[in-house]
Amino acid sequence: TNSFSEQTLWMLAVRDQRDRAAFGLLFDHFAPRLKGVICRSGISQGQAEDIVQDVMLTVWRKAHLFDPQRAQVSSWIYQIARNRQIDVIRKERRPVPEELKQPEEVQEDAAQIVALEQETSRLREALKRLKPAQREMVEKAYLGELSHSDIRAETGLPLGTIKSRIRLGLERLRHELKGTETS
Amino acid sequence: MSSITHHIPDELLIAYASGSLEQAFSLVLAAHISMCDECRARLGAHEAVGGAMLENACGTEAGMAVSADLKARLLDALDDPVEPAPPAYHRSGVFPGPVMEALGGLPPKWKPLGMGVRQSILSHGKGGSVRLLYIPSGQAVPDHGHNGLELTLVLQGAFHDETGRFGVGDVEIAGSDLEHTPVAEEGAACICLAATDAALRFRSFIPRLLQPVFRI
Ligand SMILES: [Zn+2]
Ligand SMILES: [Zn+2]
């Protein structure tokens, strides 16, 4: 198919129209998933729900930073959730890379967004096809249950094409930025 | 920027993405990614895996129903006054945004280490230590080994050691098996951001005596 996923459409409605109904749908979709993933780190259900609430509030408040050419809604929310968990559990603020300035008026490239979505669904399917033991290792690594010396980078997941898609999105953004700086 | 040849390996990017990387190393990664689109895109790919796991979490034991009133409470909170966001730090001179944040927006306070080498400690604690190093051109950092992992990001100038040459944006990853003597190249002084999770082992006698004093 050549259209955006529901999640992307909801997120764009939140970002561009501050659409509360769409935000409610995002909540219905992500809150149980977030809670399940957060509870894996041995956090109480109550505290996990506090984190879910903080994460979703951040989604609402930082919606203007969402760029579907560089990240899917799910990976953007994953990042926010990891930051919040570090904040709550370790009482630390994870150093984050400098945010790339968004130009005021961007013409988003729908084809680029769709291509990134397609790569991401291929990735999800690949994750499902992993052997249980391998999938368990991948989940542990990405949920922070392994130390960096225990993580082996070969996951058998198709990351190269996603990387090139994200890279294209970055190049486009840099290009747009140059345009706004000279005009 | 495109001249960066030494990047961040995947296992460190994954540890960073998942939040399990020590604070000191996280600062080096955040600084490198601020300078390197290649690693920014690779980090994005790893975050896509995290996102895909989140998406897949339903339908398994991993998805969990939330309390009935959580959504209503959240929707009510959307209009709450927002605490002012902490200031966003941007690159200043050779220091990328995350380093400026660690410096609290102020220039580094350099302390002499001898032979023209200077350091400015950004943090020192159980999450490892991270510092800025200033090495005059042609000067060597005393020969040393590592008890753990050391990440060194070049912010200005260049250095070389037994393993190769490192210019602006390059990251050297040194494990406990590496014993090296980094030497700053001719030209501008070399300024690096260096993080370790354990004390360095100096071969010569004097630096070892001074180690507790300088916290290196
Ligand atoms: Zn890189
Ligand atoms: Zn070293």
Automatic annotation (TrEMBL), chain B:
InterPro entries: Anti-sigma_ChrR, Anti_sigma_zinc_sf, ChrR-like_cupin_dom, RmlC-like_jellyroll, RmlC_Cupin_sf
Domain ChrR-like cupin intervals: 109-195
Pfam families, per database record: Cupin_7
Gene3D superfamilies hit by this protein: Anti-sigma factor, zinc-finger domain, Jelly Rolls
Signal peptide (residue range): none
CDD domains, A to Z: cupin_ChrR (cd20301)
Protein name, per record: Anti-ECF sigma factor ChrR
